[in-house]
Amino acid sequence: MADVKIQVNPLFLREEELRQALELLFFGYRDFTAEPDRLLAEKGFGRAHHRVIYFVGRHPGLAVSHLLGILKITKQSLSRVLGQLVEEGYISQRPGERDRRQRLLELTDKGRDLERQLTAAQTELVARAYRAAGAEAVEGFRTVLLGLINEKDRERFLDPGRGSFE
Amino acid sequence: MADVKIQVNPLFLREEELRQALELLFFGYRDFTAEPDRLLAEKGFGRAHHRVIYFVGRHPGLAVSHLLGILKITKQSLSRVLGQLVEEGYISQRPGERDRRQRLLELTDKGRDLERQLTAAQTELVARAYRAAGAEAVEGFRTVLLGLINEKDRERFLDPGRGSFE
DNA sequence: GTAGAAAAGTCAACATGGCTGACGTAAAAA
DNA sequence: TTTTTACGTCAGCCATGTTGACTTTTCTAC
Questions:
Q1: CA distances (Å), A48 to each of A53, A80, B56, in order?
Q2: Does residue B140 approach strand C to less than 7 Å at its CB?
Q3: Where are the domains of chain B?
């Protein structure tokens, strides 16, 4: 009976709370990508290049099909961006040993440089937010975000042992 | 002295932890927008239309310049999208009372319908993640995301009383 | 009351980065 | 040997961002 008071208009609160989450994600993501976007624009690149550079840096020797799986875009879309990065010497390709049809991707020194710049801009922002929020909040942040991710990709975070993308 | 042990390779852990955050944000945001994107595509709209519909729904009577401030895009970009939404009867315009130069924006019934569909898709995803994570994690999620947002916009979340965008 | 600033809109041109569809080549797998 | 797979390419379309220039209406300050 005493509980009833606490439940005053729970639908409104829930709705507000959830809408706030949508906005936090919108504004948060917008600002999260703002600084890399500026750095990339200087080099004539866009956000698509960033994603490629990031994941190739994170998984050296990544095959093209794996990268397509991560990004969930078409190979034609990827090829435009990847082609530029290879041409301009940010990414190198070599045939796979076990499967020579594959072109395994790696960052060159130049690519690694750019990757570090871009990642630094974002990690610094996140590090500030993490420090300000505290360890417990960080855990909560990770838990909730993980819950937004589709199950298949989620596994890679829960089981970081096998970092592969099929 | 005893602290030293705890600090074994703190740089590596920090780097990994921060990179994980970048990826959580990337995958989380990607999946967060996936369902609305599909709904919108059916109507020939895109994510830009979603943002306009969302913020007009959230702030009925919003002026165009305020919307531009929220979205941080040019008025030419907005005008294309907004023009379609007005033309197709999702959004209505009326002159401001105090300032008749303004065109205050509001959702029509049709617009409200679509807004509800889109928001429902996202709030359901977030609600699932919130339920699975628990109240404490939700607080942490909000705190960290808030920390990613630039100070000016952040105020609007901390002080929800005045929901205006100058 | 007039000058200037502000709110909104418009036209034009361009870039990025998604998409589909069709087709080609080399290598692996059946 | 046939079929499938990994990768690439050409061509064209669409959505959504940009800059720059210009107009109209209305408000504000002097």
A1: 9, 10, 29
A2: no
A3: 3-158
Would the CB atoms of A133 and B149 count as touching at under 8 Å?
Answer: no
Top-tier CATH class for A3-158: mainly alpha
A157–B24: do the CB atoms touch at under 8 Å? yes
Euclidean distance between CA atoms B51 and B48, whole angstroms: 5
Q: What angle do CA A40, A41, A42 make, to 5 degrees?
A: 90
Q: For residue A102, give every residue at least 6 positions away whose Cβ sits within 8 Å of its Cβ, in sequence order, or none.
A: A63, A64, A65, A95, A96
- Condensed to tens digits (0 to 9), the pLDDT of residues A92-105 reads 999 999 999 999 99
Å between CA of A103 and C1' of D9: 16
Q: What is the pLDDT of residues B41-55, one digit of tens each?
A: 888 899 999 999 999
The residue to which tokens 């197709």 are assigned:
B88
Could you tell me the CA-to-CA distances from A20 to B30, B123, B150 in Å, in that order?
A: 18, 10, 16
ipTM for the whole complex: 0.88
Pick from B8-17, B21-30, B113-122: least confident: B8-17
pLDDT of B102: 96
